[in-house]
Amino acid sequence: MNKRDAFRRVLKREEKETDARIFPPDIDLTPPKLDEFTQMKTGQTVEEYFGLFHKTVQVQMEKTYQADGKYLFANQNMPEEYEVDAFGTGESRGSEACMHMVHFHSPLTGECSLEQIENHPLPEIAGGEKERLQKDIKEIHGKGLAVRAWLEQTIWERSWLIRGMENLMMDMMLDDPMAERLLERICEHSCRTAAFLAEAGVDLIALGDDVGMQSTPLMDPKLWLRYIQPKLARVIASAKKVNPEVIISYHSCGFATPFIDHLIDAGVEVLNPIQPESMDVEEVYNKYSDRIAFWGSIGTQTTMPFGTAEEVRHTVMERVRISEKKRGYLISPTHVIEPEVPWDNLHAYIDVMKELNRR
């Protein structure tokens, strides 16, 4: 069994209690932390240095708007410097203290019409992307690693980035046709991308829309059930139709407990990140581990940046204890590694994972 096989076995919940336990690690560095890693001059890639069982790829999108797209914000008071991404969303940076964080600007915020929703330019998959992606996947598989593909901001986040969160929520609450049409356009776009990724041969498609705040849902679950869940199910079905063996994970920060049953019903097979500052990890695992795998749960708001190396090791071993019988648990930090996380804590995490695998 190579690392790819082991990765899939864990997330497909195929481990038996009597099997030797497998512990695929996961580390995702922010750009400032990646700069620190580069300065270490290890002579290794991030995947090699941390002993990862997978590598992440992403589909490149081509814009369909004209020039730099800044005409999309002609009626807004914009900062002096900003960029427009492939979906027509503006991004501006603050001070250097903000590091990699950006401020988002929504092109259709405020007064809007159904015609504007219909005509907002969405990107297309870049030319030659199929061949490039298949080549990369073949090389990664040749190294015995699994391939994860991000399709983040799958429906809800991508839609509110275009319309503005407050505006989109009001449209939904008021049954405004603009809400349904925008969400539907983004859903159709994600369906095409999910099918494209499944055909390319990735092992896992990582979907995601944050639906939780720190201790409460971001929206009434009934509203989510009406507008978002059926569309999420369609995106997943689009991938599974092409490749039934592709694994589907879903990311939501914050308190996502009220949505778990409905995510499972939509076809989600792996839940990420089970944020311990917002959810009771053991309670959620015990309740849902018969139906879904778990990825994450080592807090990046608490343990990773502010705990000691020993506390990191202890937290990992607690997750091992919780999941010893039912398995299906990829134990990792809950989110990207920010600049304030000490390298001692990163090494503590990866060292204990390697030790567990040696056993």
Helix content: 40-55%
Could you say how many structural domains there are in total? 1
Number of strands: 12
What integer is the average pLDDT? 97
Topology as a string of helices (H) and strands (E): HHHEEEEEHEHEHHHEHHEHEHEHHEH
The helix tally amounts to 15
For the record, the CATH class is Alpha Beta
Largest sheet data:
7 strands, parallel
The CATH topology is: TIM Barrel
Q: Order of strands across the widest beta sheet?
A: 1-7-8-9-10-11-12
Describe this structure in words.
This protein has 359 residues and is of the alpha/beta class. It has a single domain (3-63, 112-358), classed as Alpha-Beta Barrel (TIM Barrel), CATH 3.20.20.210. It is 43% helix and 14% strand. The chain has helices spanning 3-11, 31-40, 46-50, 114-119, 129-142, 156-163, 165-173, 177-200, 221-227, 229-242, 260-266, 281-288, 303-306, 309-322, 343-358, and strands at residues 54-57, 61-62, 83-84, 90-93, 102-105, 124-125, 146-152, 204-208, 247-251, 270-272, 293-298, 329-333. The strands form 3 sheets. The chain has a 7-stranded parallel sheet. A 3-stranded antiparallel sheet has the order 3-4-5, with no helix packed on it. A two-stranded antiparallel ribbon has the order 2-6. A hairpin with an 8-residue loop joins strand 4 (90-93) and strand 5 (102-105). The longest helix has 24 residues, at 177-200. The radius of gyration is 21 Å and the shape is globular. The relative contact order is 0.13. The model has no long low-confidence stretch (mean pLDDT 97).
